[in-house]
């Protein structure tokens, strides 16, 4: 089954890709983690990828990436994001007492379904607010196929850690997206691949995979996870694909 890992900026590469059947992704959340916290919290974010844009620039960038993903994806784009409060990031660009909701930049896209990912009560208290225990998964555009497993729009799935990446997807979450909305042999894209969880599950379920990731060390990690140390296939996209 074809698996391709591309070490590059997804904004540059997506327009050069062949058509895929399904996209599943979780972008950086613009949390400015390297600057957040102090003491042990700061240490735990050492090595975090750059995640620190002025919020308006971030939202425009995400809109543009989603638009190009929709052009390249035959079925749905599953796009994972979350509500952010100003407290959360201590981001110097944000003002206090403000909520940032993904629908602020996604409301013009044809959202087919909104899924609440109930992660459990694992986050810290939100500085006088109730603890945040959910993320959102937006299924943008109608799936090209749909298999009904009886799942509702609330998915209670415990987050995974310690894959060598600070925020890897749980495999169960990816499995639901793939099983419900693709066929065996389809191509699945993750433009913000991270540790490659979408690739791991796609391969296990007999799907092809294209992963894009800007950080070389994460590409290498994904490659190890997907191939169990076999068949290096890291590429940097320079030419449009012709398949
Ligand atoms: C939220 S993480 C994705 C984690 C992934 N779902 C997993 O299971 O490991 C976002 C990833 O996007 C990468 N990234 C950020 N900006 C990027 C860009 N412009 N192009 C490609 N990758 C990017 C980051 O390095 C990070 O690994």
From TrEMBL:
Residues spanning the membrane: none
Domain of life of the source: Bacteria
Swiss-Prot/TrEMBL keywords: Methyltransferase, Transferase
Pfam families to which the protein is assigned, alphabetical: N6_N4_Mtase (PF01555)
Domain DNA methylase N-4/N-6: 152-223
Coiled coil: none
Name of the protein in question: Methyltransferase
Source species: Paracoccus broussonetiae subsp. drimophilus
